[in-house]
Protein backbone atom coordinates (compact mmCIF):
# COMPACT_ATOMS: atom_id res chain seq x y z
CA UNK A 1 0.00 0.00 0.00
CA UNK A 2 1.41 3.38 -1.08
CA UNK A 3 1.75 5.93 1.70
CA UNK A 4 0.51 9.33 0.56
CA UNK A 5 2.60 12.45 1.27
CA UNK A 6 1.58 14.21 4.49
CA UNK A 7 3.60 17.43 4.28
CA UNK A 8 4.50 19.93 1.58
CA UNK A 9 8.07 18.62 1.59
CA UNK A 10 6.98 15.01 1.07
CA UNK A 11 4.62 16.13 -1.70
CA UNK A 12 7.43 17.95 -3.46
CA UNK A 13 9.73 14.93 -3.16
CA UNK A 14 7.01 12.74 -4.66
CA UNK A 15 7.14 14.88 -7.80
CA UNK A 16 3.55 16.07 -7.61
CA UNK A 17 2.65 18.62 -10.30
CA UNK A 18 -0.42 20.76 -9.62
CA UNK A 19 -2.89 21.53 -12.39
CA UNK A 20 -5.50 24.26 -12.71
CA UNK A 21 -8.97 22.76 -12.36
CA UNK A 22 -9.86 23.30 -16.03
CA UNK A 23 -6.60 21.66 -17.10
CA UNK A 24 -7.46 18.77 -14.81
CA UNK A 25 -10.94 18.44 -16.37
CA UNK A 26 -9.40 18.53 -19.84
CA UNK A 27 -6.77 15.89 -19.06
CA UNK A 28 -9.21 13.43 -17.50
CA UNK A 29 -11.77 13.98 -20.26
CA UNK A 30 -9.15 13.15 -22.89
CA UNK A 31 -8.18 9.99 -20.98
CA UNK A 32 -11.83 8.90 -20.87
CA UNK A 33 -12.29 9.59 -24.59
CA UNK A 34 -9.16 7.67 -25.53
CA UNK A 35 -10.17 4.68 -23.43
CA UNK A 36 -13.62 4.55 -25.05
CA UNK A 37 -15.49 5.11 -21.78
CA UNK A 38 -19.07 6.35 -21.78
CA UNK A 39 -18.52 10.00 -20.92
CA UNK A 40 -21.89 10.81 -19.37
CA UNK A 41 -23.46 7.56 -18.12
CA UNK A 42 -27.23 7.67 -17.68
CA UNK A 43 -27.77 10.72 -19.88
CA UNK A 44 -29.87 9.62 -22.85
CA UNK A 45 -30.33 11.23 -26.25
CA UNK A 46 -27.57 13.85 -26.09
CA UNK A 47 -24.77 11.86 -27.73
CA UNK A 48 -24.84 13.71 -31.05
CA UNK A 49 -26.15 17.08 -29.89
CA UNK A 50 -25.33 18.32 -26.40
CA UNK A 51 -22.37 16.17 -25.34
CA UNK A 52 -20.07 17.17 -28.24
CA UNK A 53 -20.61 20.82 -27.26
CA UNK A 54 -19.77 20.06 -23.63
CA UNK A 55 -16.58 18.30 -24.74
CA UNK A 56 -15.60 21.32 -26.81
CA UNK A 57 -16.25 23.65 -23.87
CA UNK A 58 -14.06 21.57 -21.54
CA UNK A 59 -11.27 21.36 -24.12
CA UNK A 60 -11.54 25.14 -24.55
CA UNK A 61 -11.42 25.76 -20.76
CA UNK A 62 -14.74 27.61 -20.98
CA UNK A 63 -17.30 28.26 -18.29
CA UNK A 64 -20.69 26.91 -19.38
CA UNK A 65 -24.36 27.85 -19.27
CA UNK A 66 -26.88 25.11 -20.05
CA UNK A 67 -30.08 26.50 -21.55
CA UNK A 68 -33.14 24.27 -21.41
CA UNK A 69 -36.63 23.76 -20.08
CA UNK A 70 -37.27 21.81 -16.90
CA UNK A 71 -36.49 18.11 -16.95
CA UNK A 72 -33.75 18.24 -19.61
CA UNK A 73 -30.98 16.71 -17.47
CA UNK A 74 -29.19 20.02 -16.87
CA UNK A 75 -28.46 19.33 -13.20
CA UNK A 76 -27.43 15.77 -14.01
CA UNK A 77 -24.93 17.05 -16.58
CA UNK A 78 -23.52 19.49 -14.03
CA UNK A 79 -23.01 16.76 -11.46
CA UNK A 80 -21.58 14.38 -14.06
CA UNK A 81 -18.59 16.70 -14.50
CA UNK A 82 -17.32 15.52 -11.11
CA UNK A 83 -16.02 12.33 -12.76
CA UNK A 84 -13.50 14.38 -14.75
CA UNK A 85 -11.82 15.62 -11.59
CA UNK A 86 -8.89 13.71 -10.07
CA UNK A 87 -9.85 11.17 -7.41
CA UNK A 88 -8.19 13.42 -4.83
CA UNK A 89 -5.87 16.40 -4.64
CA UNK A 90 -3.56 17.73 -1.91
CA UNK A 91 -4.62 20.86 -0.01
CA UNK A 92 -3.10 22.67 2.94
CA UNK A 93 -4.60 21.13 6.06
CA UNK A 94 -7.31 23.21 7.68
CA UNK A 95 -7.65 25.72 4.83
CA UNK A 96 -11.23 26.87 4.19
CA UNK A 97 -10.61 27.50 0.50
CA UNK A 98 -8.62 24.36 -0.39
CA UNK A 99 -5.33 26.16 -0.95
CA UNK A 100 -2.70 24.53 -3.14
CA UNK A 101 0.38 23.50 -1.12
CA UNK A 102 2.62 25.05 -3.78
CA UNK A 103 0.57 28.15 -4.69
CA UNK A 104 -1.44 29.32 -1.65
CA UNK A 105 -3.69 32.36 -2.09
CA UNK A 106 -5.00 33.04 1.42
CA UNK A 107 -2.91 34.98 3.91
CA UNK A 108 -3.31 32.36 6.63
CA UNK A 109 -1.69 29.65 4.49
CA UNK A 110 1.02 31.98 3.25
CA UNK A 111 1.91 32.85 6.84
CA UNK A 112 1.89 29.20 7.84
CA UNK A 113 4.31 28.29 5.05
CA UNK A 114 6.53 31.29 5.80
CA UNK A 115 6.82 30.11 9.41
CA UNK A 116 7.00 26.32 9.02
CA UNK A 117 8.12 25.80 5.44
CA UNK A 118 8.16 22.27 4.06
CA UNK A 119 6.77 20.64 7.20
CA UNK A 120 3.34 22.27 6.80
CA UNK A 121 0.81 19.46 6.82
CA UNK A 122 -1.42 18.68 3.87
CA UNK A 123 -4.59 16.63 3.51
CA UNK A 124 -6.19 14.91 0.54
CA UNK A 125 -9.50 16.25 -0.73
CA UNK A 126 -11.86 13.76 -2.43
CA UNK A 127 -13.33 14.85 -5.74
CA UNK A 128 -16.95 14.73 -4.57
CA UNK A 129 -16.01 17.42 -2.01
CA UNK A 130 -14.86 19.69 -4.84
CA UNK A 131 -18.31 20.23 -6.34
CA UNK A 132 -20.73 22.81 -5.01
CA UNK A 133 -24.20 23.76 -6.17
CA UNK A 134 -26.66 26.54 -5.43
CA UNK A 135 -30.22 27.30 -6.53
CA UNK A 136 -30.51 31.00 -7.39
CA UNK A 137 -33.79 32.11 -5.72
CA UNK A 138 -33.09 33.67 -2.34
CA UNK A 139 -29.33 33.65 -2.81
CA UNK A 140 -27.40 36.58 -1.33
CA UNK A 141 -23.91 37.90 -2.06
CA UNK A 142 -22.80 36.64 1.34
CA UNK A 143 -23.93 33.13 0.36
CA UNK A 144 -21.89 32.99 -2.84
CA UNK A 145 -18.95 35.32 -2.29
CA UNK A 146 -18.72 35.95 1.44
CA UNK A 147 -19.06 38.78 3.94
CA UNK A 148 -17.47 40.35 6.96
CA UNK A 149 -17.87 38.17 10.03
CA UNK A 150 -19.12 40.35 12.93
CA UNK A 151 -17.73 37.93 15.49
CA UNK A 152 -14.25 38.12 13.95
CA UNK A 153 -14.40 41.91 13.72
CA UNK A 154 -15.52 42.10 17.35
CA UNK A 155 -12.58 39.88 18.21
CA UNK A 156 -10.20 42.49 16.86
CA UNK A 157 -9.67 41.45 13.24
CA UNK A 158 -9.07 44.54 11.01
CA UNK A 159 -11.92 45.23 8.57
CA UNK A 160 -9.59 45.24 5.58
CA UNK A 161 -7.98 41.90 6.40
CA UNK A 162 -8.84 38.36 5.37
CA UNK A 163 -9.11 37.42 9.02
CA UNK A 164 -12.37 39.39 9.23
CA UNK A 165 -14.06 37.40 6.47
CA UNK A 166 -16.53 34.56 6.32
CA UNK A 167 -16.08 32.89 2.94
CA UNK A 168 -19.03 32.14 0.66
CA UNK A 169 -19.67 29.03 -1.41
CA UNK A 170 -17.60 29.98 -4.45
CA UNK A 171 -14.32 30.63 -2.57
CA UNK A 172 -14.91 27.40 -0.66
CA UNK A 173 -15.03 25.61 -4.03
CA UNK A 174 -11.59 26.95 -4.98
CA UNK A 175 -9.86 24.28 -7.13
CA UNK A 176 -13.23 22.73 -7.90
CA UNK A 177 -16.51 23.14 -9.78
CA UNK A 178 -19.34 25.42 -8.74
CA UNK A 179 -22.80 25.22 -10.30
CA UNK A 180 -25.57 27.82 -10.14
CA UNK A 181 -29.07 26.71 -11.12
CA UNK A 182 -31.59 29.16 -12.62
CA UNK A 183 -29.10 31.94 -13.32
CA UNK A 184 -31.72 34.56 -14.36
CA UNK A 185 -33.14 34.48 -10.83
CA UNK A 186 -29.93 35.88 -9.36
CA UNK A 187 -30.20 39.47 -8.13
CA UNK A 188 -28.38 42.05 -10.26
CA UNK A 189 -25.81 42.82 -7.57
CA UNK A 190 -24.84 39.16 -7.43
CA UNK A 191 -24.58 39.01 -11.22
CA UNK A 192 -22.22 41.96 -11.05
CA UNK A 193 -20.16 40.19 -8.40
CA UNK A 194 -19.68 37.29 -10.80
CA UNK A 195 -17.99 39.53 -13.39
CA UNK A 196 -14.54 39.36 -11.83
CA UNK A 197 -14.76 35.64 -11.14
CA UNK A 198 -15.56 34.90 -14.78
CA UNK A 199 -13.04 37.29 -16.30
CA UNK A 200 -10.26 37.86 -13.77
CA UNK A 201 -10.87 34.68 -11.71
CA UNK A 202 -10.83 36.64 -8.46
CA UNK A 203 -13.34 37.87 -5.88
CA UNK A 204 -13.78 41.13 -4.01
CA UNK A 205 -15.74 41.30 -0.77
CA UNK A 206 -17.67 44.34 0.47
CA UNK A 207 -15.52 46.72 -1.55
CA UNK A 208 -12.50 46.14 0.66
CA UNK A 209 -9.14 45.68 -1.09
CA UNK A 210 -9.15 41.92 -0.52
CA UNK A 211 -8.75 39.84 -3.66
CA UNK A 212 -8.42 36.12 -4.19
CA UNK A 213 -7.28 34.69 -7.53
CA UNK A 214 -9.60 31.69 -7.48
CA UNK A 215 -9.18 28.55 -9.53
CA UNK A 216 -12.76 27.47 -10.14
CA UNK A 217 -14.82 26.13 -13.06
CA UNK A 218 -18.29 27.66 -13.20
CA UNK A 219 -21.35 26.11 -14.79
CA UNK A 220 -24.82 27.63 -14.87
CA UNK A 221 -28.30 26.56 -15.92
CA UNK A 222 -31.18 28.70 -17.16
CA UNK A 223 -34.54 28.55 -18.87
CA UNK A 224 -33.87 29.84 -22.42
CA UNK A 225 -36.86 32.17 -22.39
CA UNK A 226 -35.77 33.75 -19.10
CA UNK A 227 -32.14 33.91 -20.21
CA UNK A 228 -32.93 35.74 -23.44
CA UNK A 229 -35.55 38.06 -21.97
CA UNK A 230 -34.31 41.64 -21.86
CA UNK A 231 -33.28 42.73 -18.40
CA UNK A 232 -33.12 39.31 -16.71
CA UNK A 233 -29.40 38.78 -17.30
CA UNK A 234 -26.86 41.59 -17.40
CA UNK A 235 -25.29 41.54 -20.86
CA UNK A 236 -21.73 41.76 -19.51
CA UNK A 237 -22.32 38.54 -17.58
CA UNK A 238 -23.50 36.72 -20.70
CA UNK A 239 -20.45 38.00 -22.54
CA UNK A 240 -18.13 36.45 -19.96
CA UNK A 241 -19.60 32.93 -20.15
CA UNK A 242 -17.57 30.99 -22.69
CA UNK A 243 -20.06 28.36 -23.86
CA UNK A 244 -23.84 28.62 -24.23
CA UNK A 245 -25.22 25.10 -24.76
CA UNK A 246 -28.86 24.32 -25.46
CA UNK A 247 -30.34 21.10 -24.12
CA UNK A 248 -33.53 19.50 -25.44
CA UNK A 249 -36.19 16.91 -24.78
CA UNK A 250 -35.78 13.41 -26.31
CA UNK A 251 -35.78 13.63 -30.09
CA UNK A 252 -37.56 10.28 -30.42
CA UNK A 253 -40.08 8.27 -28.44
CA UNK A 254 -37.62 5.39 -28.16
CA UNK A 255 -35.15 7.60 -26.28
CA UNK A 256 -37.96 8.75 -23.99
CA UNK A 257 -38.82 5.13 -23.21
CA UNK A 258 -35.17 4.42 -22.36
CA UNK A 259 -35.27 7.30 -19.88
CA UNK A 260 -38.46 5.89 -18.33
CA UNK A 261 -36.93 2.43 -17.98
CA UNK A 262 -33.77 3.91 -16.46
CA UNK A 263 -35.37 6.35 -14.03
CA UNK A 264 -38.72 4.85 -12.98
CA UNK A 265 -38.69 3.17 -9.59
CA UNK A 266 -40.94 0.14 -9.93
CA UNK A 267 -40.82 -2.92 -7.71
CA UNK A 268 -43.63 -5.46 -7.82
CA UNK A 269 -42.20 -7.65 -5.08
CA UNK A 270 -41.11 -11.27 -5.12
CA UNK A 271 -44.66 -12.64 -5.34
CA UNK A 272 -45.31 -11.01 -8.72
CA UNK A 273 -43.59 -10.52 -12.05
CA UNK A 274 -43.88 -7.39 -14.18
CA UNK A 275 -44.74 -7.46 -17.86
CA UNK A 276 -45.38 -4.11 -19.56
CA UNK A 277 -46.37 -4.35 -23.24
CA UNK A 278 -44.43 -2.06 -25.55
CA UNK A 279 -47.58 -0.24 -26.63
CA UNK A 280 -48.26 0.76 -23.00
CA UNK A 281 -44.74 2.19 -22.64
CA UNK A 282 -45.24 4.04 -25.91
CA UNK A 283 -48.52 5.52 -24.68
CA UNK A 284 -46.90 6.77 -21.46
CA UNK A 285 -44.14 8.54 -23.38
CA UNK A 286 -46.53 9.75 -26.08
CA UNK A 287 -48.63 11.47 -23.40
CA UNK A 288 -45.61 13.63 -22.59
CA UNK A 289 -44.87 14.22 -26.27
CA UNK A 290 -48.45 15.35 -26.88
CA UNK A 291 -48.30 17.68 -23.88
CA UNK A 292 -45.15 19.29 -25.30
CA UNK A 293 -47.03 20.30 -28.44
CA UNK A 294 -50.47 20.96 -26.99
CA UNK A 295 -51.85 24.48 -27.60
CA UNK A 296 -53.35 24.36 -24.10
CA UNK A 297 -49.96 23.89 -22.41
CA UNK A 298 -47.47 26.69 -21.73
CA UNK A 299 -44.60 25.56 -23.95
CA UNK A 300 -42.22 28.17 -22.52
CA UNK A 301 -42.41 26.34 -19.21
CA UNK A 302 -41.85 22.95 -20.81
CA UNK A 303 -43.00 19.48 -19.83
CA UNK A 304 -40.44 17.51 -17.86
CA UNK A 305 -39.47 13.88 -18.37
CA UNK A 306 -40.73 13.48 -14.81
CA UNK A 307 -44.25 13.41 -16.27
CA UNK A 308 -43.42 10.18 -18.13
CA UNK A 309 -41.57 8.71 -15.16
CA UNK A 310 -44.27 9.32 -12.54
CA UNK A 311 -47.03 8.27 -14.94
CA UNK A 312 -45.23 5.00 -15.59
CA UNK A 313 -44.78 4.41 -11.87
CA UNK A 314 -48.48 5.10 -11.26
CA UNK A 315 -49.50 2.83 -14.13
CA UNK A 316 -47.49 -0.05 -12.69
CA UNK A 317 -48.72 0.69 -9.16
CA UNK A 318 -52.38 0.45 -10.14
CA UNK A 319 -51.86 -2.75 -12.09
CA UNK A 320 -50.00 -4.13 -9.08
CA UNK A 321 -52.95 -3.16 -6.87
CA UNK A 322 -55.17 -5.19 -9.18
CA UNK A 323 -52.85 -8.18 -9.07
CA UNK A 324 -52.74 -8.14 -5.28
CA UNK A 325 -56.52 -7.73 -4.98
CA UNK A 326 -57.42 -10.41 -7.53
CA UNK A 327 -54.61 -12.82 -6.74
CA UNK A 328 -52.98 -12.58 -10.18
CA UNK A 329 -49.27 -13.36 -10.49
CA UNK A 330 -48.37 -11.08 -13.39
CA UNK A 331 -48.51 -7.30 -13.10
CA UNK A 332 -49.48 -6.02 -16.53
CA UNK A 333 -50.79 -2.46 -17.08
CA UNK A 334 -53.94 -1.87 -19.14
CA UNK A 335 -55.71 1.12 -20.67
CA UNK A 336 -58.12 1.17 -17.70
CA UNK A 337 -55.13 1.83 -15.42
CA UNK A 338 -54.54 5.09 -17.28
CA UNK A 339 -57.56 6.56 -15.48
CA UNK A 340 -55.25 6.97 -12.49
CA UNK A 341 -52.65 9.04 -14.33
CA UNK A 342 -54.53 12.25 -13.60
CA UNK A 343 -53.02 12.29 -10.11
CA UNK A 344 -49.44 11.83 -11.34
CA UNK A 345 -49.91 14.28 -14.24
CA UNK A 346 -51.41 17.09 -12.17
CA UNK A 347 -48.97 19.88 -11.37
CA UNK A 348 -46.56 18.83 -14.13
CA UNK A 349 -48.43 20.53 -16.97
CA UNK A 350 -48.63 24.31 -16.79
CA UNK A 351 -51.63 25.61 -18.71
CA UNK A 352 -51.15 28.37 -21.27
CA UNK A 353 -52.74 31.49 -19.74
CA UNK A 354 -53.56 32.78 -23.24
CA UNK A 355 -55.23 29.61 -24.54
CA UNK A 356 -58.31 30.25 -26.68
CA UNK A 357 -60.48 27.60 -25.03
CA UNK A 358 -60.91 27.72 -21.26
CA UNK A 359 -60.20 24.17 -20.14
CA UNK A 360 -59.31 22.92 -16.67
CA UNK A 361 -56.08 21.06 -16.01
CA UNK A 362 -58.08 17.83 -15.71
CA UNK A 363 -59.66 18.38 -19.13
CA UNK A 364 -56.33 19.17 -20.77
CA UNK A 365 -54.76 16.04 -19.29
CA UNK A 366 -57.71 14.01 -20.59
CA UNK A 367 -57.29 15.36 -24.12
CA UNK A 368 -53.56 14.73 -24.07
CA UNK A 369 -54.07 11.14 -22.89
CA UNK A 370 -56.69 10.37 -25.54
CA UNK A 371 -54.55 11.90 -28.27
CA UNK A 372 -51.58 9.76 -27.20
CA UNK A 373 -53.58 6.51 -27.17
CA UNK A 374 -55.09 7.24 -30.59
CA UNK A 375 -51.72 8.06 -32.12
CA UNK A 376 -50.05 4.89 -30.85
CA UNK A 377 -53.06 2.82 -31.96
CA UNK A 378 -53.18 4.24 -35.49
CA UNK A 379 -49.46 3.55 -35.92
CA UNK A 380 -50.30 -0.15 -35.64
CA UNK A 381 -53.68 -0.44 -37.33
CA UNK A 382 -55.18 1.38 -40.28
CA UNK A 383 -57.78 1.31 -43.04
CA UNK A 384 -59.24 -2.11 -43.80
CA UNK A 385 -58.01 -3.62 -40.53
CA UNK A 386 -59.90 -0.99 -38.54
CA UNK A 387 -63.06 -1.53 -40.58
CA UNK A 388 -62.88 -5.30 -40.10
CA UNK A 389 -62.45 -4.96 -36.34
CA UNK A 390 -65.31 -2.50 -36.00
CA UNK A 391 -67.64 -4.70 -38.06
CA UNK A 392 -66.77 -7.57 -35.76
CA UNK A 393 -68.20 -5.76 -32.74
CA UNK A 394 -71.23 -4.19 -34.42
CA UNK A 395 -73.74 -6.78 -33.23
CA UNK A 396 -75.18 -4.50 -30.59
CA UNK A 397 -73.71 -6.38 -27.63
CA UNK A 398 -71.82 -4.38 -25.00
CA UNK A 399 -68.21 -5.16 -24.10
CA UNK A 400 -67.45 -4.17 -20.52
CA UNK A 401 -63.92 -3.75 -19.20
CA UNK A 402 -62.32 -2.16 -16.14
CA UNK A 403 -59.20 -2.07 -14.04
CA UNK A 404 -60.63 -4.56 -11.52
CA UNK A 405 -62.00 -7.04 -14.05
CA UNK A 406 -60.02 -10.30 -13.72
CA UNK A 407 -57.70 -10.90 -16.67
CA UNK A 408 -59.12 -14.37 -17.30
CA UNK A 409 -62.56 -12.83 -18.01
CA UNK A 410 -61.23 -11.22 -21.18
CA UNK A 411 -60.85 -14.65 -22.74
CA UNK A 412 -64.63 -14.90 -23.08
CA UNK A 413 -64.81 -11.50 -24.79
CA UNK A 414 -62.37 -12.76 -27.41
CA UNK A 415 -64.44 -15.90 -27.95
CA UNK A 416 -67.62 -13.81 -28.40
CA UNK A 417 -65.95 -11.35 -30.79
CA UNK A 418 -63.57 -13.47 -32.84
CA UNK A 419 -62.61 -10.62 -35.19
CA UNK A 420 -60.70 -9.10 -32.28
CA UNK A 421 -58.43 -12.10 -31.88
CA UNK A 422 -56.04 -11.21 -34.71
CA UNK A 423 -55.22 -7.65 -33.55
CA UNK A 424 -54.99 -8.85 -29.94
CA UNK A 425 -52.64 -11.63 -31.07
CA UNK A 426 -50.46 -9.11 -32.95
CA UNK A 427 -50.10 -7.14 -29.72
CA UNK A 428 -48.86 -10.17 -27.78
CA UNK A 429 -52.22 -11.49 -26.64
CA UNK A 430 -50.94 -15.08 -26.65
CA UNK A 431 -48.44 -14.27 -23.87
CA UNK A 432 -50.93 -14.90 -21.07
CA UNK A 433 -54.25 -13.72 -19.71
CA UNK A 434 -52.85 -10.45 -18.35
CA UNK A 435 -51.25 -9.37 -21.64
CA UNK A 436 -54.37 -10.47 -23.53
CA UNK A 437 -56.51 -8.23 -21.33
CA UNK A 438 -54.14 -5.30 -21.88
CA UNK A 439 -54.12 -5.79 -25.65
CA UNK A 440 -57.91 -6.09 -25.86
CA UNK A 441 -58.48 -2.88 -23.90
CA UNK A 442 -56.01 -1.09 -26.17
CA UNK A 443 -57.85 -2.28 -29.29
CA UNK A 444 -61.26 -1.28 -27.91
CA UNK A 445 -60.10 2.18 -26.81
CA UNK A 446 -58.32 2.70 -30.11
CA UNK A 447 -61.47 1.82 -32.05
CA UNK A 448 -63.45 4.25 -29.89
CA UNK A 449 -60.98 7.11 -30.30
CA UNK A 450 -60.82 6.56 -34.07
CA UNK A 451 -64.61 6.90 -34.22
CA UNK A 452 -65.53 3.27 -34.87
CA UNK A 453 -67.06 2.34 -31.50
CA UNK A 454 -69.14 4.16 -28.93
CA UNK A 455 -68.13 4.17 -25.28
CA UNK A 456 -69.93 4.79 -22.02
CA UNK A 457 -68.04 5.19 -18.75
CA UNK A 458 -69.63 4.17 -15.47
CA UNK A 459 -67.22 4.81 -12.62
CA UNK A 460 -64.03 2.94 -13.41
CA UNK A 461 -65.80 0.64 -15.88
CA UNK A 462 -66.03 1.28 -19.63
CA UNK A 463 -68.71 -0.18 -21.88
CA UNK A 464 -68.01 -0.36 -25.63
CA UNK A 465 -70.42 -1.22 -28.41
CA UNK A 466 -70.56 -0.96 -32.17
CA UNK A 467 -72.10 2.07 -33.79
CA UNK A 468 -75.46 1.62 -35.46
TrEMBL record:
| Group of enzyme by EC | ligase
The record, for InterPro entries, names: P-loop_NTPase (IPR027417)
Q: Which UniProt keywords apply?
A: Ligase
Q: What is this protein called?
A: Magnesium chelatase, subunit ChlI
The top of its lineage is: unclassified sequences, metagenomes, ecological metagenomes
> Does the keyword Transmembrane feature in the UniProt annotation?
no
MF GO annotations:
magnesium chelatase activity; protein kinase activity
Q: Write the Enzyme Commission number(s) for this entry.
A: 6.6.1.1
Instruction: Determine if Membrane is one of this entry's keywords.
Output: no
Output the PANTHER family linked to this UniProt entry.
Answer: PROTEIN KINASE PRKA, PROTEIN PRKA
Amino acid sequence: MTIKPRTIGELREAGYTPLAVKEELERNLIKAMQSGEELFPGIQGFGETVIPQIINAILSHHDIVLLGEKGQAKTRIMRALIRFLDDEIPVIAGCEINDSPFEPICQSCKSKIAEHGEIVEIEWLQRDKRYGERLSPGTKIADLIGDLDPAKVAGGAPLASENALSFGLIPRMNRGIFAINELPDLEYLIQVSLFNILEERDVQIRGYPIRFPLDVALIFSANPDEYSRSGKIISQLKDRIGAEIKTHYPLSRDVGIKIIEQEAKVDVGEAHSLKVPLFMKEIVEQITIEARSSPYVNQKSGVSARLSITNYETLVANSRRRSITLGEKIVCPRISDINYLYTSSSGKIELDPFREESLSEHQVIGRVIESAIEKVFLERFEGAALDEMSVGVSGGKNIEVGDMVPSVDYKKIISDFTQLWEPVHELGGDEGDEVRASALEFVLEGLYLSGRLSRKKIGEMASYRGKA
